[in-house]
Write a structure and sequence with these properties.
The structure is a single chain. This protein has 269 residues and is an alpha/beta fold. It has a single domain, classed as Carbon-nitrogen hydrolase (Nitrilase/N-carbamoyl-D-aminoacid amidohydrolase), CATH 3.60.110. It is built from six helices and 14 strands. The strands form three sheets. It has a six-stranded mixed beta sheet with strand order 5-4-3-2-1-14. Strands 6-7-8-9-12-13 form a six-stranded mixed beta sheet, with helices on one face. Strand 3 and strand 4 form a beta hairpin. Helix 5 packs parallel to helix 6. The longest helix has 13 residues. The radius of gyration is 18 Å and the shape is globular. It starts with a strand and ends in a 27-residue tail after the last strand. Bound molecules: acetamide. The site of acetamide has 7 residues, from loops.
Amino acid sequence: MLQISVVQFTPTWGHKAQNLEQIRQLLTGLRSDMVILPELCTTGYSFLSKEEVRTVAEDASGQSIGLLKKLARENNALIIAGFAEIEGENVYNSAVAVFPGGDTTIYRKSHLFYREKLCFAPGNTGFTVIKHPLHDCNVGIMICNDWRYPEAARSLALAGADIIACPSNLVTNLWTIGMPARALENKVYVAVANRCGTEERDLPSNEKQALTFKGCSAIYDLTGLALATARENEDAILTVEIDPVLARDKSFNDFNDLFNDRRPDLYRI
Ligand code: ACM
């Protein structure tokens, strides 16, 4: 058994120091074994170009991951958070998993959404599953729009994930249909950390873009039922206890097993 927490808050675009301070305050003293923060939570979301992202993107030695390492050590927790990553010429919409001992693993978003395609390189890490260092729990990571591609969650589940952590910046409500389905069809827990607030930007075309993030962060059980949900427009921390071992039995009655019954010989993917 372990405690997992999803942190919903309202980052401000262009104010990294302020966002990091908010994260520091939210996580200080939080007693949980695994903490999931939203997508791009240190910078805000609405970038317009690669050049713009490059001015704030960081690698694993940057200040964002520096703070997350400190918090992971102090809280003895695995922390998973979205950030803008730079590697050479490329910038990625990434999530970092920071272990209490200071090690990190990075996932780069595979399925970019909307104007992200103008700003980030498509992820090249593939779908990896990490082990919680202190509990018997295998954790897969996907980011936001990856939910629309069931292959992402399936790949993580087939690789042994008991829980899928999903840092998100969701701007429609459709995911409330899709994310629980990802839990149900794979018999895994799914933890969605969404954000709140509205970001307004002037586009190069002189049009205005206003994106409102839909909150409602949630943790789903192995049948897709919500164990906890946040409100649409309020900073919140959801904490629940889960038993990851239950996710390893893929049967759902005496005759059916989700994985053994698969028919890859019939599928075209
Ligand atoms: C999204 O992928 N941020 C909707």
